[in-house]
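ok posting inputs for the cobalamin job
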Amino acid sequence: MPPDLLTEIKEALIFGKYDTVEKKVNEALKKKVPPMKILNEALIEGMKEVGRKWIDGEVFLADVMMSAEAMRKGMNLIEPLISKPGKERKIKGKVLIATIYTDIHDIGKKIVAALLQAEGYEVIDLGVDVPPSKIIEEALKNKVDLIGVSCLLTTSILYIKDLIDFLSTRKLRNKFIVAVGGAALTKDKSEEIGADLYAETAEEAIKEINEKIKEFKARGKEGND
Ligand code: B12
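and the output
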């Protein structure tokens, strides 16, 4: 592999050149660069840089939208490769994932969903801007083990708190593990709102979720608080 291929993808993403990203990701895959390496070292790193540039006022929202489109094109090629479950066909558990009400960011959520699928979970993705009541309704209907909520806007965190409070009020809190992630959250914040699990990256999320689901299944689902 030319050493600069990943850098070229990252740079193209930062500048919102989505056709170049698509072409170069295809090229890297043909050269057998592992999809997770392309995702972590080129696409996610590029998106982080876009975030930094935005904070520093070096780019406008329209630029970020072009970069997000580039990320989407890249992810469309990577996602089918990373979400394929391994040989072991046994379903480890059922997970519902959503971006919380008022928030439309979904790049990170989609990565987490793809890796969970690869890990052997059945994943129900409710999309973005999902109200807490809808999340609870679908979690009950689909009898999931874990609710994963993504949140990138500080002002949207309160709706995750609402979700957790509604679960408690309806005596459903112990029926589901509540996992949270996304740039608006930290470990401290996740504990403050009463989540069971927080992870900073998708890889960390998979590790933590595996452990919690194992514990959860071992103690059996409880109906009440
Ligand atoms: C791309 C982007 C956009 C794109 C989103 C495209 C899309 N389809 O998602 C567009 C241009 C549409 C956008 C819009 C807006 N954005 Co924006 N956006 C970003 C940006 C630059 C990158 C986000 C991203 O995709 N990162 C890459 C992914 C891979 O990382 P991630 O999401 O954090 O996910 C990882 C982990 O967090 C974790 N994870 C994620 N979800 C979950 C879930 C669980 C359960 C777990 C365990 C783990 C986990 O795993 C992932 C992979 O490792 C961030 C900057 C930043 N620092 O995050 C701003 C940012 C989030 N946006 C911001 C803002 C303000 C907005 C707008 C309000 C702007 C506006 N004025 O309109 C709107 C939002 C409208 C709305 N109602 O939601 C602010 C939020 C500020 C705040 N603290 O509230 C940020 C932080 C930029 C900034 N510094 O100002 N945005």
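notes: The first strand starts at residue 93 and ends at 99. The two ends are 55 Å apart (CA to CA).
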